[in-house]
Design a protein that fits this description.
heterodimer; A: alpha/beta; Aspartate Aminotransferase, domain 1; globular; B: alpha/beta; VC0802-like; 9-stranded mixed beta sheet; 6-stranded mixed beta sheet; 14 helices; elongated
Chain lengths: 406, 393
């Protein structure tokens, strides 16, 4: 049986989601823009998902824009800065461990004359509020900090960072506010997020990371934000994102969101139990360590497995393991052979290691960069699976360590 | 649409009494390739000329591409056939041909005639003169240049009259099936597919062997080799790809032999296994992509050691090629983009920082004595692991 520990790359689509998509595709195939009954039915689907999505974040329905996924959402946010009619400050602040769907659009903006500050992170992958505060200047127009890091699972203190920005925006005209964006692609569906409480203006989400379909995602855009579209056309999504809506995808997304949030604490407990089991089993294993776990995280691990307070700064589902002296690709292949699917570094950049900056930036030694595997869990993973993983890991690693480049 | 093509095949033409063997092999290859592409065809092989008649909805270029990429074809020309041998019919045919094939007539030409039907009442020079005259009258932009024309316009008088002028170069070589079968050592790199192509081009059918070393090489690396073999098979026809699990042999060498000799000893074992598989599959020789001095394991002395592991002939068509020459061919045959995908192959996994570049056979053989008693079983297991992937060209 397959053990799928690569849920941060993508996740299994829920049967209920598939059913919904298939029924919408075969029966409700109308275009939401059509005036007839079929169109109205399709429009209803959008409306329903928009409401469910909004309530999962405690925001207004009109603040949700559906996109083709997380990458589009991020691209939309950054290229928006290029299209202002008014003066836009040419300074952007981000962190050095963002996903390439943030870093690459920013590299493009740099070529267009923007200045980008890449905030450092501590050895656990966290951006400090102090650093953010110090880097804000007169012409800062946007701050973009990821919610959960995709390679090591560190959770940024978005609320604290949001406070800094709120403070900096005091007394500013609505046009001159610094916008706060967070790439929540690894966080949404796993954590409770409240943009209004955390001072988030813009937030990107991808559907397939939490058992929804690929090709659908959304943006939360605070109603205060003066928005400028990336894609022009028929004026769908209130003119913010043209193109006939992916109605089946949006229908499926709703189910995925409902299922993710109907017992989010329970899901979190399940994932943490799997993650904690593996940490406990391997923490004293020779030359094995974990990336991005703070002392607080480790302490929480020992004290209780049920409760995770705000002190815990690691995500429930991502675990980055450094296995000294073993090449991650080889370990990955060996596990794959046993039907256990994990990832090396970050799945998105596995073929382009130069893009995998998180490990370097949290201080992993050069020689160890190629010896890291990433496990990422879903609420459907079990302790049984974790046990099998640990058993196989303990069999494979010594065998591989016997044969290393010398 | 019906079309008729004339084939040229320089090298076969100089064969003696067995020439028909080569011609028949060529006809068979072309027939197979056209059939595979569902292009209905008839091949006429007579008096030193091969004509291909096709009928298809596909554009003419699709058919010429298939024909020109058949080993043995040096050139292919689309011809116009005039059924009647009356001069008026020939004259009209030439004019029609020019109208069909060209739209701009600002070029120089010379008419050439070949008259194998000696009963035809006009002689060749006369045909040339008359046809040239008609063309100049009909197309005032044309000019005649008998010494260095832009285009030759051919009129061949045989059972019928054949007119052609555009000559499309073929990939030449010898028809497949005229030189048996050989076993290619196929890695995921740039060189080995090119080596396979070059030997196949001499009329040799190809089978291939790939050494897979899981978990050190991924399934993607294996898929890459399948993809390369598939691209190669567009030229070579069907390839039986033998995938051998080489991990345990590699590990055994790693544990028992000096590390700087690992690659050379590993390659010797690859040769031995490839030879065994080759013999089992009626292959007459091995093919490798080696080129003198390209890497440590391909220095002259290393090659001597590798070569000694095989008793069969080893064809190394790239032996004197520079890397750039090899890359150029790999781009021509469309294997380059696949070859440069970044998956590790088994040769690079445990490569020493400073491998030997001047190995001496006796010393290598001495090191290999450490393997005795352990390697035999692994060797048999490797042979037994042979997974054959049949790749239809």
């Amino acid at each position: 049986m397959a053990i799928y520990f690569d849920n941060a790359a993508t996740s299994q689509v829920l049967p209920e989601v598939i059913e919904e998509i298939s029924s919408v595709m075969s029966e409700n195939y109308g275009n939401p823009s059509s005036r007839h009954a079929m169109g109205i039915k399709a429009e209803e689907i959008l409306k329903k998902t928009r409401e469910v999505t909004a309530s999962s974040l405690n925001v207004k329905a009109k603040e949700i824009i559906f996109t083709s996924g997380g990458t589009e959402a991020n691209n939309q946010i950054f290229t928006m800065l290029l299209r202002g009619t008014k003066h836009v400050g040419k300074h952007i602040i981000t962190s050095c461990i963002e996903h390439s769907a943030v870093l690459e659009p920013l590299a493009f903006l740099e070529k267009q004359g923007f200045r980008v500050t890449y905030l450092p992170v501590d050895k656990y992958g966290h951006v400090s509020a102090e650093d953010l505060k110090n880097s804000i200047c007169e012409d800062t127009s946007m701050v973009s900090i990821m919610y959960v890091n995709n390679e090591i699972g560190s959770i940024n203190n978005i609320k604290e960072l949001g406070e800094v920005i709120k403070e900096a925006n005091k007394g500013k005209d609505v046009h001159d506010r610094i916008l706060f964006h967070t790439d929540a692609i690894q966080a949404y569906g796993k954590l409770k997020i409240s943009p209004k409480l955390e001072n988030i203006d813009l937030l990107s989400v991808s559907g397939h990371k939490f058992h929804g379909p690929k090709g659908i995602g959304f943006l939360f855009v605070d109603e205060k934000v003066i928005f400028r579209p990336l894609i022009f056309g028929g004026g769908q999504e209130g003119g913010f994102r043209s193109g006939t809506e992916n109605v089946p995808g949006i229908a499926g997304l709703r189910i995925a969101i409902e299922k993710a949030y109907e017992d989010i604490d329970g899901h979190e407990r399940k994932m943490r139990a799997v993650k904690n089991y593996i940490i406990n089993e391997l923490k004293s294993y020779e030359d094995v360590s974990f990336n991005g776990l703070t002392e607080g995280d480790m302490k929480a691990l020992e004290e209780t497995k049920e409760d995770f307070s705000d002190e815990v700064r690691t995500s429930p589902h991502i675990l980055s393991i450094l296995v000294k002296g073993v090449r991650s690709e080889v370990l990955l292949n060996a596990l794959s052979d046993k039907g256990i699917y994990v990832s090396s570094g970050s799945a998105c950049s596995s073929n382009r290691p130069e893009l995998s900056g998180t490990l370097k930036n949290i201080g992993v030694e050069e020689e160890d960069l190629d010896s890291v595997i990433r496990l990422s869990f879903s609420r459907f993973n079990t302790i049984e699976e974790a046990k099998i993983f640990v058993e196989e890991f303990k069999k494979i690693v010594p065998a591989l360590r016997r044969f290393t480049r010398r | 649409m019906k079309s008729i093509f004339l084939l040229k095949y320089a090298e076969i033409g100089i064969k003696g009494k067995n020439r028909h063997v080569f011609e028949e092999a060529l006809c068979k290859q072309i027939r197979n390739r056209l059939n595979k592409n569902k292009i209905s065809n008839k091949i006429i092989n007579e008096r030193g000329r091969i004509y291909v008649e096709t009928e298809t909805e596909e554009p003419v270029s699709t058919v010429t591409d298939i024909i020109k990429n058949t080993f043995g074809v040096t050139a292919v020309c689309e011809v116009k056939v005039v059924e009647s041998k009356e001069w008026e019919a020939i004259r009209d045919g030439v004019v029609e041909y020019m109208k069909e094939q060209y739209s701009d007539y600002h070029f120089s030409f010379k008419v050439k005639c070949r008259r194998s039907d000696k009963n035809f009442k006009m002689e060749s020079p006369e045909v040339c003169m008359e046809a040239g005259h008609v063309l100049l009258e009909e197309f005032p932009d044309l000019t005649v240049d008998v010494h260095n024309p832009d285009t030759f316009i051919w009129i061949e008088v045989r059972d019928k009259v054949y007119i052609y002028s555009k000559v499309i170069k073929g990939i030449a070589g010898m028809p497949l099936g005229t030189n048996g079968k050989s076993m290619l050592l196929l890695s995921g790199g740039i060189d080995s597919p090119v080596a396979g192509y070059m030997i196949a081009r001499r009329g040799v059918y190809i089978d291939a062997v790939y050494f897979h070393a899981p978990p050190y090489t991924s399934d993607r690396a294996k898929q890459k080799v399948v993809d390369l073999a598939t691209k190669l098979s567009k030229y070579t026809g069907m390839i039986n790809l033998h995938v051998i699990n080489f991990t345990d042999i590699q590990m055994c060498i790693y544990e028992e032999c000096p590390h700087d000799e690992l690659t050379i000893i590993m390659r010797r074992y690859m040769m031995k296994i490839a030879e065994d598989i080759a013999k089992k599959n009626d292959c007459l020789a091995l093919i490798t992509g080696e080129s003198i001095g390209q890497v440590a394991s391909q220095t002259a002395m290393s090659l001597a050691c590798t070569d000694a592991a095989a008793t069969m002939p080893v064809y190394r068509p790239l032996i004197g090629f520079d890397k750039q020459d090899i890359i150029d061919i790999s781009k021509d045959i469309d294997t380059y983009e696949t070859s440069i995908l970044p998956y590790e192959d088994c040769c690079t996994i445990f490569v020493a920082k400073h491998p030997v570049t001047k190995p001496v056979l006796s010393a290598i053989e001495k090191s290999e004595e450490n393997l005795v008693g352990k390697i035999e079983k692994l060797y048999e297991e490797a042979l037994a692991s042979d997974e054959v992937i049949r790749i239809h060209g």
